[in-house]
From TrEMBL:
Domain of life: Bacteria
Organism of derivation: Pseudorhizobium endolithicum
InterPro entries cross-referenced by the UniProt entry: FAD-dep_OxRdtase (IPR006076), FAD/NAD-bd_sf (IPR036188), SoxB (IPR006278)
FAD dependent oxidoreductase domain mapped to chain residues: 33-380
Protein name according to UniProt: Sarcosine oxidase subunit beta family protein
Coiled-coil intervals, chain numbering: none
Keywords from the named record: Cytoplasm, Nucleotide-binding, Oxidoreductase
Amino acid sequence: MRYSALRVLKEALTGHQGWRPLWRDPDPRPSYDYIIVGGGGHGLATAYYLAKTFRQARIAVVEKGWLGSGNIGRNTTIIRSNYLLPGNEPFYEFSMKLWENLEQEFNFNAMVSQRGIVNLFHTDAQRDAYRRRGNAMLLAGADAELVEAGQLREMMPFLNFDNARFPIKGGLLQRRAGTARHDGVAWGYARGADARGVDLIQNCEVTGLHMENGRILGVETSRGYIAAKKVGVAVAGSTSLLMQLAGLRMPIESHVLQAFVSEGLKPTIPGVITFGAGHFYVSQSDKGGLVFGGDIDGYNSYAQRGNLPVIEDVVEGGMALMPMIGRARLLRTWGGIMDMSMDGSPIIDRTPIDGLYLNAGWCYGGFKATPASGYAFAHLLATDRPHETAKAYRLDRFERGYVIDEKGAGAQPNLH
Ligand SMILES: Cc1cc2nc3c(=O)[nH]c(=O)nc-3n(C[C@H](O)[C@H](O)[C@H](O)COP(=O)(O)OP(=O)(O)OC[C@H]3O[C@@H](n4cnc5c(N)ncnc54)[C@H](O)[C@@H]3O)c2cc1C
């Protein structure tokens, strides 16, 4: 079924009897050509592009819970391509370009809103670093502008300019960045994949990987054994657990990241803002809630909920940046499990097991990568060659010393 204004009108006039579920609910078949483990944004996007762009068939996505129950439905919805390093920037800009046409492409309203992002700077050294990053973005075909404090004061008068411990000197602005409705993205990809024959199998946990002579033959699941020619793993925070089933130790740690939303307020915040003197970022949802977040909790965990000390730390950052936030009431907080890689950058690669492929290491930033990650992973699965923009995302880069340390923080996952 194609969605259109005409369809909405027709359904309104005929009692909304014609709407269909977004996807089927099939039982697993005995075998597939491709099994994607993980029905999050990356797994669903991978299946979608495998079927649509790479014209592959006999594809299943197996998800232990319901589609979109992981980080894709828990993030703070920010999309951007303001990266510095050559390993990252072209990939994220490719993703940005896919975002810009996504809703038309999969015919689903994912509320992609290019409302802009400003990374604030508070020192001259930080201005230099952001200028450099902006230039790297321009070289990769992205947009970037350096704005000074006066201009920001007009755009965001509620920021603490006059009495701040860390005075705002300006910001790096990317106007094409913004937000998208995270679960809408999962549903759009799921619907598009299902329409092209992909089986989306929910409540189906992968509990074992069947391998012989260094080759994958299928997966053991809570709904029985399923044979497969190729298996792609995209399970975000559960990556280490899943890959352990293949006897592989990952350069990844799992950490909790929390997010927060306030009660609904009148339109206040024009785009996305990140604080440069602490870890705090904020935007406003279309319902009016201030959506914000900060640091990971800082210890290894598989719990999808966080602790109070980080809540205190995040709201301290918010108060330092925009004291008016102290008058808003907090509505909800929640957490997701992050797949923190050692250098803060992702992995899209083959593994030492033939037919087993890995998509992981997204840290805080995998939502914005969803379209490009799905596309590049599908490219790898279908052709056995890395996509042009994802060539640096090798699994063995840590042992070879080719890390992509965007933050310059060193091989310490809790700092990325
Ligand atoms: C609080 C928070 C805020 C964030 N904010 C942003 C942001 O603003 N911008 C941004 O770019 N990124 C953000 N992120 C990061 C982003 O959400 C993730 O990097 C990205 O969603 C991860 O990819 P995914 O969508 O495929 O993961 P997920 O949605 O977590 O998908 C993985 C799936 O695998 C399933 N699974 C696990 N084990 C198994 C198994 N054994 N068998 C079958 N299925 C299994 C899980 O149930 C899950 O559904 C944020 C994350 C969090 C938690």
